[in-house]
Amino acid sequence: MATRRQPTRADVRKQKMQAAIVYPLDWLEERSGLVGATKYFLFRNVPADSNWMQTLGSATLTAFIVQAVTGVILAMYYKPTPGEAYSSIQNITDHVTLGWLVRGMHKWGASVFIILLFLHMGRVFLFGAYKYPRELNWIVGVILLLCGMLEGFTGYLLPWDQTAYWATVVGINLNGTAPFLGPWLAGFLRGGQEIGAETLTRFYSIHMLLLPGAIFGLIGLHLYLVIRLGVTSPPWSKDAAGEERPEDERPVRVGLTPPAPSRRGGS
Ligand code: HEM
Hints:
Blueprint: H1 9-32, H2 34-43, H3 56-75, H4 85-94, H5 99-126, H6 135-157, H7 162-176, H8 182-190, H9 197-229
Residues 54, 56-58, 60-61, 64, 117, 120-121, 124, 127, 129-130, 134, 137-138, 141-142, 144-145, 148, 215, 219, 222, 226, 231-232 line the site of protoporphyrin IX containing FE (HEM).
């Protein structure tokens, strides 16, 4: 009969360490289910023929997180008034520790974010991933795209230099030419008869509160739908979006329709 080895001091230390790590996770899991949800998110199955183009959504998400973090740091030093905006940006660039880096990351990161957004959308389009049952996620994506572009538009004014000012004049005037809502929209964006202090605070508030909040919420919904519906296979796969598949036999509860192959002939 095999005798059980007495645990050494190293074994006991290891057990204590494991318990110290597992206890808070168990505590959290029991009360929220968040640990299980994270595990499911990280280890869920994706189609075997998924490819690198399907990382563009996560790349876009990473770019957005970089914008959010650098934006919070910039907001600690930026002053949204016509008298101080330009000089506060100069201060960030020239005097704040690593301010030039944070500002550069935010400024160039904005372009990276928009480029990745379009590349991700192009991938979704080419893979037909907008088709049933993912139309709603495409719609959420379109709103995200609009919010992303509005972030660029509102952020451009904030340095309050000549380029920023005149680009915003052009942007607001362009909006003003839209039918019906145009004049109202231009007035709302200006916040008065001409571009000035009101416009700057308005753009700042939209840029650092309204849009980031909306984008965070929409990304949550977008990712929930990605997890619920699964990732689309590439167009060359037999499981590609829109392909005919055998009828799904799973029972359907009224009001809770699980996503299944389209019965409307692959659109
Ligand atoms: C802030 C912007 C966005 C973020 C962070 C984001 C993130 C993601 C992520 C992580 C995925 C799963 C992985 C992947 O397919 O790459 C995904 C999938 C998807 N995204 Fe986006 N996305 C954004 C914008 C958009 C836009 C602009 C559209 C289209 C107009 C869009 C439509 C979709 C669709 C339909 C899917 C499902 C793809 C599939 O099932 O293969 N997304 N997104």
